[in-house]
Amino acid sequence: MLARLFVFFGGFFVLVLCAALVVPYFVDWTGYRADFEREASAILGRKVTVQGDATAKLLPFPSVTFSNVTVAGGPGGQPAMTVETFSMDAELAPFLSGEVLIFDMRLVRPKATIDIAADGTVDWAIRPSSPFDPSQISIEKLTVTDGEIALRHAAGGRSHVLSEINSTISARSLAGPWRMDGSLRLDGLRSTVVVSTGKASGDGQLRLRLKADPDAYP
């Protein structure tokens, strides 16, 4: 589950941004905020809104920054996800060969509520209409600062909170393998965490290796 959560954080924003801003390989800089909101909403099936500032530049490399991004669909009419600041720098040359290289991506205070059904299904799915092949998108560095995820398990009626998520994440492709190094609190218990995965199989399975070092249990 932990692997799928950080794959979601990175993969969601990369796919959404790629669909919004680099299809085709040139950006309509006059309408990129509206493009981002429209394409992100279409991919997720949830309304995505940039409530804060939006800036973009093409040189010396494509770079965008959005503040106060919200994704609708949470409990009680609340957002399912918010991000205080989202910024990304990409290499331009790989676009010409149909690949996307994200060399620096930053999520500041992302917060999400994730419902897990009784059968283990996570209620956050990238729609299959995405125009990008996950194997063609790689992330050199994704930094998450002060993230938080509220997990709600339908099977047992329990809830957990992953808070103070501070990590560096990389991925050879969105299909894997992924690696995460950082720290977080699980229901208040702080732990350093190292996570690595294999490549996702055709049936969606993902091999996971996890090393956790809780402060309370040396």
Write a structural description.
There is one protein chain. With 218 residues, the protein is α+β, with helices and mostly antiparallel strands. It has one domain. It has 2 helices and 10 strands, in the order H-H-E-E-E-E-E-E-E-E-E-E. The protein has helices at 2-21, 32-44; strands at 48-50, 54-57, 63-71, 81-90, 100-116, 137-153, 158-171, 178-186, 189-197, 208-214. Strands 1, 2, 3, 4, 5, 6, 7, 8, 9 and 10 form a 10-stranded mixed beta sheet that branches. A hairpin with a 5-residue loop joins strand 2 and strand 3 (63-71). Helix 1 packs across helix 2. It is globular and about 50 Å long. The model is unreliable at 19-27 (pLDDT under 50).
Task: Describe this structure in a few short sentences.
This protein is α+β, with helices and mostly antiparallel strands.
How is this fold's topology laid out?
Elements: H1 2-21, H2 32-44, E1 48-50, E2 54-57, E3 63-71, E4 81-90, E5 100-116, E6 137-153, E7 158-171, E8 178-186, E9 189-197, E10 208-214
Parallel strand pairs: 5-6
Antiparallel strand pairs: 1-3, 2-3, 3-4, 4-5, 6-7, 7-8, 8-9, 9-10
